[in-house]
Amino acid sequence: MDRGKKKAVKRYFDYSLLFVTIFIAGFGLIMIYSTSSYTAQMKYGSAEYYFKKQLIFMILGFAAMYITYRIDYHIWHRFAVPIFVAALLLILALIPFGSEANGATRWIRFGGIGIQPADVSKLAVIIMVSSAVCSFGVKLKKFRYVILICIMTAGVQAGLIYVISNNMSSALIVLAIAFVQTFVAYPGYKIYIFLCSLLAAGVAAIYAWITSMLKSGKMTENFRLNRLLVWLNPENYATGKGFQTVQALYAIGSGGLFGKGLGKSLQKLGYIPESQNDMIFSIICEELGLFGAICVIMIFGLMLWRIAHVAQNAPDLFGTLLVAGVFAHIAVQVVLNIAVVTNFIPNTGVSLPFISYGGSSEVILLAEVGMVLNVSSKIRLES
Asked: Among 20, 59, 50, 24, which residue's Cα sits nearest to residue 277?
C-alpha cells in the first residue's frame, strides 16, 4: 500500500435540489401556456406568445444557473460592494427610464425586454448582507451592528424601491431577506422573538385602526387604504377593484378536490386579468384542484428543505448566509403569493417563484439556485 498517496477528497452535490428546480421550472412553463394561451391569442394572435417568451427566459435562467454554479461562491464576497452599487444605480435608473403600470414604476424596458430592478436588488442584498456579516466578524455579537448592517444594506435598497418604484411588496421582501440572514448569523435569538412579537402587535393595532376607519365602506384617495378595504370585503367591490380577487377565489373554489383538468379553466378566459402572472396559483387550483395545489406547496417545501440542508452543512459562514438568503427569498415570495391569491393578505403583486410569468425574476432565481449548488459542491463528505 502506498502511504504517500493522498486520499481523494469526496465532494457533495445536491442532485435533489437540481432535479426539483428543473421540475418546478418545467411545471411553471406548462402552467404559463395553460393560463395564457387564450389571452395571448386574443392580444397577440398567437396562443404560444407568453410560452415562447418564458421558454427563452428559462433557457437564459438555466444558463445563469450553470454560470453561478461554476463560479466559486467566495468570489461574491470580493464583488459584493460593486454588485450592491450596481443594483442601486439600476433602481435610480427607473426615474428617467422606468415604465409605469398600475400606479407603480417597476420596469426598465429595452424594446420587448424588461428588467425589474427590484429582482436584481434581492440578489444584491443577499450577497451584501453575507459579505457585511463576515466583515464585521465578532462585532456582530452586539446587536447594534446587526441593525447597522440591515440599515446599510436592505434598508437602503428597500427605501429606494419603495420611494422610486412604489413597490412595497419587493421592499418588504428585501427587508425579510436581511432579517433571516442576520437571524442566522446573530448568536442570540431572544431579541428576534421580541421584535417579531412587537411587529405582530403593531400589525394587529394597525389592522384594528384601519378596520374601524373603513367601516363606512367608502373608497378613499389613498390607493393602499383602498386595497385594504377591498381585502376586507372583496365581494362588495366585485365589479371594480375587487374583481381580480373575487375571480381568483371563484377559480379556487370551483376546482374542488382534483380540479377541472389541465387546460380546462374558465376563469382564465378573460375573467382573471394577467392570470399567468401573480394569480397563476388560482388557475393551478382550478385546473388541478386542492390535490394539485398541495402538491405544488410540497414541491416548494422539498426545495426549501434541500436549500436549508445545504445552508446547515456549508463549509463556512459566508456560504451559510448566501444560502440562507436564497432560502428567505424563495420562502417569503411563495408564502406571500399564496396568501394574496387566497385573500389572507391584501393584494401586493408578488409573483410565484419559478411558476409565474416573468423574465428577470426567473433568471435571478435560477442564478441564486446555481449559487446554492456551488456551495453544496464545496461540502466535504466524510470518508
From this structure: 50
